[in-house]
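#help-structures
NK: newbie question, is this the right format to request a structure? protein is Protein BUD31 homolog 2 isoform X2
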Amino acid sequence: MDDTENDPHDGKRKCETLWPIFKIAYQKSRYIFDLYHQRKEISNELYEFCLDQGYADRNLIAKWKKPGYERLCCLRCMQTRDHNFATACVCRVPKQLREEKVIECVHCGCKGCASGD
């Protein structure tokens, strides 16, 4: 994480500078989520400790438990107040319904996190 924060931002758009940090936060949360919910390799006490200490995002994990949000990349992509016309992010649109085949989310750099993909 320190290496990511200290990387030079030359030639990147302003929004692109935070993408690696969002990616690492997603990977840490997903790893802890998978260890507890999918593989059942860690105890409830350790899982709660990781959430309490901030090793994983409690709110993002809560969304992953709901149908339709199993692959959500970040919480900002589902908040309608951050997008034009009060809709969800473009990365939440299933691939077969997109006009453009290659897209990137402006907030986190996701290339598609819709559950139907």
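mod (FA): yep, format's fine, and the tokens are attached above. Residues 45 and 51 are 10 Å apart (CA to CA).
NK: thank you!
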